[in-house]
Write a structure and sequence with these properties.
single chain, elongated, mainly alpha, two-stranded antiparallel sheet, two-stranded antiparallel ribbon
Amino acid sequence: MQPFDRKSLLDKASRTGSLDAADVLVLRREVYGDDGRIGPAEAELLFDLEDRITAPVPEWTALFLEAMTDYVVEQTEPQGYVDEAEAQWLLQRITADAKVKSETELELLVRVVERARAVPFRLSAAALAEVRHAVVDGSGVTRHGRLEPGRITMAEVALVRRVLHAAGGERGIAVSREEAEALFDIDDAVGDAENVPEWAGLFAKAVGNYLMAATLHEAPAREEALRRERWLDAPAEGYGTFLDRFVDGLTGFGNLIETLTQSLSDKVEAAHAEDNRRDAAAITDAEALSAGEVDWAVAWIGRNGRVTAAEMALIDFLRRIHPVLPTPLEAVVRRGAA
């Protein structure tokens, strides 16, 4: 087998704008290696190739998305967490002139948000900002259909839904301020266009979530998750990991196992009860719009001099929870409808 020639592959991508399926197969073997792990040098090579490829074959797109998602999400400890430094590196590599360079890289950004257990809010907000660019002047085909400039189609709705649900983690949508403001930017770009009706409903529920709903059971900070994993795997002096010692200590002690199981069951039940009490308190607190939330909503709703259909859907959503809205919000609706 000939040695891998990185320079020749880059030169071919620059010269022809493409790689063929055989090139991609050689590249896959190289970047994943014998241990199945991708290092920083391989990640940079993949992006350097992506920058040169203008006519990608399906095999290249599949490898790029698979390998880069693995690298960003799965191959830095603890797995599943994307920190600020990784988010910054990814955004620098996929953007030019403040826009994602290709539909493939937009898909990569969305996949990273989907796959990760926790990402910085600005990464999911960046994904939504890219949807706005697609709405204003973008084109291209995504897995859910063709993006059309000037209006919101089901393709854009599907992208937004993927980002929001992924960023919300296992408990569903949990919208941050950055994400809510990105949604307003999308709506402002084409608020008067013939958008699909699903957009108004998604916008209302997502921004309403930010205004009304508590974010419950957030994933632990990356540093905390890493600390926990190291504790579980930390070996005692000359004696296995914590889990090894735990299992060894139970060997041959049936009564101890029964007692411990009951003890753990009691503790789990108590923990669930405490979670439920905390959730109930958080939901009660979240149902009331604070002065700061009202001020934020007033600043964003109708900021272009008109209240869009999506913003009216948001008002209706809030009224179902609070039949009498705060006076400043009602004033905004009256001005926009005038």
